[in-house]
Amino acid sequence: MLNIDEIQNGIVIDHIQAGTAIGLMDLLGIKSNRKASVALIQNARSYKAPSGRKDIIKVEGDASWLNLDVLAYLDPNITVTIIQDGKPVRKEKPQPPKKLVNIVRCRNPRCISSIEEECDQIFELSANGKYRCIYCEQELQVKQD
Predict the structure, then answer these.
(1) Cα–Cα dist 46/98, whole Å
(2) Rounded to a whole number, what is the distance in angstroms from the first to the last CA of the chain?
């Protein structure tokens, strides 16, 4: 069995759908040039995940620069545990953000955000629980596995 040391101060992003953690790291801006140590665990056994597998990201050090709002949009089952002095102090299940700014692109080729280079890509959460472009009302298409 693989053994990854515990972290002293930082965060653990857990219950990530198996095989998606690398893309998640890119969207969160986790890069190797940060001072924080990062551990990526892929295809770990999970009794809760429908597939029986999950990914985990551990970030040791200051993780205040992470934008965790996007987590609930990407995977509603993700949990974030805050670690201080080697002990978990808080566990959160992120809620879907009201707005997604520059996370995903509008697929409508006639949308102003697709035409203008410096226009932010902004999607708002609608009453039906789906995200819509604020410029053209295009509904965000979510990948289905």
Answers:
(1) 30
(2) 29
pLDDT for 92-107, tens place per residue? 888 888 999 988 899 9
Domain 10-92, CATH: 3.30.70.140
Q: Where in the chain is the domain with CATH 3.30.70.140?
A: 10-92
Q: Which two tokens stand for residue 109?
A: 């080729």
Question: How many CB atoms within 10 Å of residue 91?
Answer: 11
Per-residue CA distances from 100 to 19, 24, 40, 137 (Å): 23, 15, 25, 14
pLDDT tens readout for residues 42-88:
988 888 887 889 999 998 887 777 777 778 887 878 999 999 999 99
- Higher-pLDDT residue of 112 and 96 is 112
